[in-house]
Every structure is written in C-alpha cells, then in structure tokens.
Specification:
Number of domains: 3
Mean pLDDT: 77
Oligomer: single chain
Structural class: mainly alpha
Number of strands: 5
Strand order of the largest sheet: 3-4-5
Shape: flat
C-alpha cells in the first residue's frame, strides 16, 4: 500500500485530489480508470528496476510460457489415451462388418457378444470421438494462444525498454511524455493476465471432459473390448487408410445426372459427417473413418466419403435412402446433431417435413413384406408458451383461497364516528367582527378645601 500511495502522490497534488472529489460521478469514474492505469504502470516499472517494495506481482512473462508447456503436454497425453480406445473400438468394428446384397450391415464377431454390449460399445466409440474432437480443438486453440503469448511478451519487453530510455539519467520527466507510456505498459500486462486466465480455462475444460469420459466408461470395458477385438491387431486410422488408398472408384460405373465422382478429392471440399463413412453410419450407427484417397461421391451438392468401394456401390443405388436414415438417426440422438454440427440441416429437414416413414413404406411396397422398428421423438413444446398468470395449479393453494373467502363472509362491516371525523364534514362557523370601541377614563380633579 505504501508503494501505491507513493505512486499516487507522484502523479497527483493536493489540488488535483480536491478537483477529483468535485467531479461528477461519470467523470470521476473515467478519471479513476486513467489514474489506475498510470499507477499500475509505475508499480510494474519499479518492479522491473528492482525498486519495488513488497508488491506481490507475478512475473507473467515467465509463468505464461511454463503454464503453456505443461497444459499442452497434458492435452497431448489425454489425446493419446483417447486414441488408444478409439483405435481398439474402430479395429473391432471394422473387422466384423459384413455388407449383404440387400444393403444391410451385419456384425460378425469372433466371440459371442450380446447385443446390448455391442450398443454400449457403439455409444462409447461416439463418446471418444467427441472427446477426440474437443481435445484437438483445444490443441488448435493452444497454438494461437502461444503465438499471442510470444507476441505480447515481446511487446511488453519493448515498452519496458522504452521507459528505461526515457527516464535514464533524468531527475524529472514531463508527465505528457511519460504517463502514456505507463498506460501502454499496463495495457500489455493486462493482456498477459487475460492470457493466463485463458490457459487456466483450457486446463479446466480438459479436466471436466476427462471427468465426464471416466464417468461414462464402464468397468467391464476391457472385457467387452477383448471379446469384440478377438485376434485382430489394433490399427490406427492412418494404417487403415494406407492399406486401402490404392483402391479407386470407377467413374464410368457411377455416370448419372446428379452423382459425380471427385477423384482425387478437392483440397477445399469438406466431406460430410466429419469424414466418417456415410453407409456405415446410416446402417450401423458406427463412426468408421472414410478413405478419401479412393474417391468421394458428390451428390446433391454435398460430398460423401466411404471406407470401401462396396459401401459406395450401395450408396449410389439410392442415396436419399441413406441420408434420410441418418437424419432420422439424428432426430433420435440429439448428441449426434451437436457432434456433426448439422443443426441447421436438421431444422431445414423438419421444416420441409421430410417423412422418413412414408419413404420406408414406399420401399416396403417395392421390396416386399418388411418390418421397421422406429423411435420418434416429439418436440418438447410444440405449442407456443402462453401461461395464464391467474391460473393456480396447486390444489392446496385453491383450498387456502376457499378458506379465506369463507372466513371473509363471516365478517361484519360496521361504521363508527371518531372525534376526527368532522374533518371530512362541511361545517359552517359564524364569528363576530371586531368592534371599534372607545373608552373614557375618569379625569383627575382638584378640589380646594377650606
């Protein structure tokens, strides 16, 4: 406090304090903000010169870089742990997928696995893919944060050097010249402080996501995964891509008016559904990465990727069937809408009233007898919210109100007149005027006696 008091007294005289107290509220706040920036700059400069007393101001230029390295290494470790689980689950499902001639997807595992265990593993794969994307996004943010830290640390050091050059070998410096420099120094320090807070938020988000992932992960995860994987060797997405990148789509077999092959895929084109195979997602609710090097299919101004040529062949036959099934899947799994970031697409589909059930009925007529089990989730509030404020839904409140009305009927209304009631009445008063009277006193008389 002593150092702040000395810094404050060095920029304001007693007359300035009196003028500051006489300012209006808004002007006083603006003046106070400027004074705070100047005083903070003086304290930071004194700390750099070694003249500061006991002010506990952190050295952000060093602590920021250390915090960045520790948080980045933590995110990298989390990503490696996620990818280990993702690679195991993806390898297990990839080795068990079989596509029938009737556009159906079957899963044939080496060991006996119950259907509920398979569904749980599908959900865990989606969960880990979500976690992977979030962590990669955090790592991408860390790169931009690092560039900002380096830039502002360099700018902070330059501003300190300019201040040293200005005050060097001088006993007094004009306030017009030095005060703006102190304000600029404080501004840079505040930006570094904000970056420190941003790094802490990155770490907290990662810890929270890790906690959610551990809560959703079952204790029997290792046993079920071992049964799903069987004797297959765990492969990464890159290894799987290299094995199939020599395969190519034949453009002649897909020569239709509204379908085209993009081979190789354009660099600026975005593959639908985050690059996962459209066919496997529609038929099996499995997130299996596609192989863009084989080629991608452009239909209805959207690009779709596939993990095998066979999956692409089935999609080419009736593409709207698979896209509608995916939209139906999204409507029953809200987390997938957020995961693929296609809220606007689903909203537009609902506005256009795309009836998936009607399409499936048409498919049944063409193919023959078939049964389709489907779950439909209705809207939460299909009718606009219009609540009557006088409505009482609680039965006990209605009973209390009835009792109050009953007690009110038993009351009697009486009238009474008090001594102050006359204030409300019209009262006429009569008074007599002041009489002008004159009086005569007895006169003094003198008498002569004999």
């Amino acid at each position: 406090m002593m150092e702040i008091s000395n810094a404050l007294s060095s920029i304001m005289t007693e007359t300035d304090f009196e003028n500051f107290g006489a300012l209006e509220s808004q002007n006083r706040m603006e003046s106070l903000k400027e004074i705070r920036l100047i005083v903070c700059g003086i304290v930071l400069f004194n700390k750099d010169t070694g003249q500061g007393s006991t002010m506990d101001i952190p050295d952000l230029t060093k602590s920021l870089l250390k915090s960045y390295e520790s948080i980045e290494s933590l995110l990298q470790f989390t990503l490696c742990d996620i990818m280990d689980r993702v690679n195991i689950l993806t390898t297990a499902f990839d080795g068990a997928i079989e596509i029938t001639k009737s556009n159906k997807l079957n899963l044939n595992f080496q060991s006996c696995v119950e259907q509920n265990e398979i569904d749980v593993m599908k959900d865990l794969l989606i969960l880990n893919r979500q976690h992977e994307i979030y962590v990669r996004k955090l790592l991408s943010n860390m790169k931009s944060i690092k560039s900002r830290i380096e830039s502002h640390v360099h700018s902070y050091g330059e501003k300190l050097m300019k201040l040293h050059d200005i005050v060097q070998y001088r006993s007094a410096v004009p306030s017009v010249q030095i005060f703006p420099k102190f304000k600029e120094l404080t501004g840079e320090w505040m930006i570094l402080h904000d970056l420190s807070y941003t790094l802490s938020q990155q770490s907290q988000i990662n810890n929270y996501l890790q906690h959610l992932s551990e809560l959703c992960r079952q204790q029997q995860f290792d046993d079920v995964v071992h049964k799903l994987l069987g004797e297959n060797q765990v492969e990464t997405d890159l290894t799987r891509l290299r094995k199939r990148q020599h395969l190519k789509f034949e453009s002649t077999s897909y020569a239709t008016s509204n379908i085209s092959i993009v081979q190789p895929p354009e660099s600026n084109s975005e593959i639908g559904y985050l690059g996962f195979c459209t066919f496997v997602l529609a038929e099996g609710r499995i997130l299996l990465p596609s192989v863009p090097e084989m080629g991608t299919i452009l239909w209805n101004q959207k690009t779709y990727g596939f993990y095998s040529i066979e999956a692409a062949d089935h999609f080419i036959g009736k593409p709207e069937r698979f896209t509608n099934k995916i939209q139906d899947l999204m409507l029953n799994n809200v987390h997938l809408i957020l995961f693929f970031d296609i809220y606007n697409v689903i909203k537009l589909a609902k506005a256009c009233q795309i009836d998936v059930d009607a399409y499936m009925e048409n498919e049944v007529r063409n193919v023959g007898e078939a049964k389709v089990e489907r779950e439909i989730q209705t809207e939460l509030h299909p009718i606009s919210y219009d609540k009557d404020q006088r409505n009482i839904w609680n039965l006990w409140d209605l009973r209390r109100k009835a009792i109050d009305l009953t007690n009110l009927k038993r009351k009697k209304t009486t009238s009474a007149q008090t001594s102050l009631t006359y204030f409300k009445l019209d009262i006429g008063n009569q008074r007599y005027g002041v009489r002008q009277k004159s009086s005569q006193t007895v006169t003094n008389k003198a008498m002569n006696t004999e």
